[in-house]
Amino acid sequence: MNTSKVKTMIKSEPDRKRSKDLGIDLKTIKLFEKIAKAVAPPPIMTVSQWADAERRLSAESSAEAGRWNTDRAPYQREILDAVNNPECEEVVIMSSAQVGKTELILNTIGYYIDYDPAPILVVNPTIEMAQTFSKDRLAPMIRDTPALRGKVRDAKSKNSGNTILHKQFPGGHITMAGANSPASLASRPIRIALMDEIDRYPASAGTEGNPIKLAEKRTTTFWNRKKIKVSTPTIKGQSQIEAEFLTGSQEEWCVPCPCCGKYQPYEWGRIHFSDVTMECKFCGEHISEVDWKQQKGKYIAKFPDRKRKRSFHLNELASPWKHWEEIIREFREAQKELKENGDINKMKTWINTTLGETWEERGKSADDDSIIGRRERYEADIPDGAVVLTAGVDVQDDRFEIEITGWGRGYESWGIKYDKIFGDLEKEETWDLLENYLDKEFYFASGSSLLIACTCIDTGGHFTTQCYKWLKKMERKSKRIYGVKGMGGPGIPLIHKLSTNNQLKVKVFILGVDSGKEILMTRLNTVDEGPGYCHFPINADRGYNETYIKGLNSEQRVVHIKDGRPVIKWVKKAGGIRNEPLDLRNYSTAAVEILRPDWEVLESKVKAGINYMKRQPAKKTGKRKTGALNRGVQL
Predict the structure, then answer these.
(1) Which of 381-385, 410-414, 611-615, 619-623 has the lowest mean pLDDT?
(2) Example GO molecular function term (predicted)?
(3) Residue 17 above 50 pLDDT?
């Protein structure tokens, strides 16, 4: 007998018996079995299980294209599985770069398209970033993941009904929005709200209010809603993601010591540069990166009972994509920039993006009396140590206020002269007086001299037109005198951008004045002479009297609550002290930042008694010397 027939008879015998016992036709039983299979709920699957089974990484957005493997970065598993845990409504991820934040978002999207269809909202800081995310990250994932490819039609295909910012799929849809666009945040109800880089969100979406609150409001009609908030942190006391993290479970990724077995987080303070190891906080052993990362880690929560809001913290020390040697090298570079140039920006970025921690601003006001008490007597116009001069000019209704500042290595500074020029600013001759003043020579005790290398003048007063005309005249004379315009707000660098958006096409630098104030207050609080230290003369004819010092220190940082979030602002102290000295030091600092001097070259020229700003007579033979090159403009 045919073997296949025997197997069929054996297999079908129980079916016939079941049909006879139930008194139902065998075909009817088979039909009901098919229906039951079709309507039965799928087996419970977590987000990480879905990703391991279905997700494919795209070549253009991943260095490791192909099948997703959560074990490649095991700290991601608990976060992914918290997303679809019925006990958890909110997941917060405060992390560094290079830990796979975006992949966590993409895996969540894939899960709620394929396995548990739902309306999804993804909020980026701006509409432009939302478009970039859709085109560069979401579209490749859909294209290369078979489980998604057939469910989300390409926006270019005929009758797809999909666009870059909105895509439909069976059982749901996904909308990409910008936190700066109230229209994109105010349409359909959604069940899954994914908010990326929330520390870069504006305080308000237009006039509608906090974009995080607007996105959350969209989820209120769903009992099984999910809110996922992800970001690299920024400034302490102002960071949105830190505030969210602190109201959650506060979970840290911890690994057991290979020697004593006790769990502990990756901490920068225990990293040893000499042998690239991390010291165990319990037994004190120095253990290599490879040995630490081979251990099976787990999250340890500070508040394990906060199950509705799980919050996680990660830093680059845990990342399989970043080696500790590279992290140490980047730290040393940031430290060098801070020590030698007084520039905090690189260190601030390193703290935020490598450790995943907030930067604590040191910009508290300095003490007036201590600054007044440490003034020095200068024996010459320019004290030894200064190698470049800059000027800041403020335009008032009846005068110019001017500060000349000397700068040395590490942005150590010397106040040279604080002065005023009175006159009718409608008249050209008053502006000529300013030009003549800025052409003055200043002398060292040795008899050698310097000219002002760069000047920044405020263009935002009542004489903008006159200022632009004068700046154009200075430009034709090839003088390094630039207009500046202040822009308030956190996170804007001191030298924000160069604009020529005016009728005369004059060069105007947009200054992040809050950053300038932070830099100045940090330097005023520096107590040891050297990088960042501020010297002031006690000589009566220099203009650095008590009124100047109080004006320099006339503002303080305060925290306001706007739309439910903390916002740091600089406000004038009580007492009505004028803040022109503060503005002028900002402008003078901007001038040296524009120059970005090469200190070593300038030190050698000053030591040789060369006034490098003076035009040198051309030599009869040989090539013409070009002067000292710096990192900004040529001196």
Answers:
(1) 619-623
(2) ATP hydrolysis activity
(3) yes
Dihedral, CA atoms, 441, 442, 444, 449, nearest 10 degrees? -20
Bridge partners of 392, per DSSP, are 403, 456
Dihedral of alpha carbons 218, 222, 223, 227, sign = negative
Phi, psi (degrees; rounded to nearest 5) at 407: -130, 145
Mean pLDDT over each residue of the chain, to the nearest integer: 87
Give pLDDT tens digits for 296-329: 999 999 999 999 999 999 999 999 999 999 999 9
Q: What one-character DSSP code corresponds to residue 268?
A: G
pLDDT of res. 5: 41
**By the 8 A CB rule, do 520 and 583 touch?**
no
Whose structure tokens read 């001759």?
Answer: 429
Sign of CA dihedral 414, 416, 422, 428: negative
Using only C-alpha atoms, the chain has a radius of gyration, in whole angstroms, of: 32
Strand partners, 279: 286
CA-based nearest residue to 330, from 358, 365, 300, 355: 355
Mean of pLDDT values over 54-75: 89
CA nearest 500: which of 522, 479, 475, 518?
Answer: 475
What span, in angstroms and rounded, lies between the C-alpha atoms of 476 and 482? Answer: 12
Q: Are 169 and 151 in contact (CB under 8 A)?
A: yes
Q: Say which DSSP state 538 is in.
A: -
Tokens, residue 336: 């060098």
User: What is the CATH code of the structural domain delimited by 47-250+302-322?
Assistant: 3.40.50.300
**pTM given for the model:** 0.70
Residue spans per domain, the chain: 47-250+302-322, 368-546+579-607
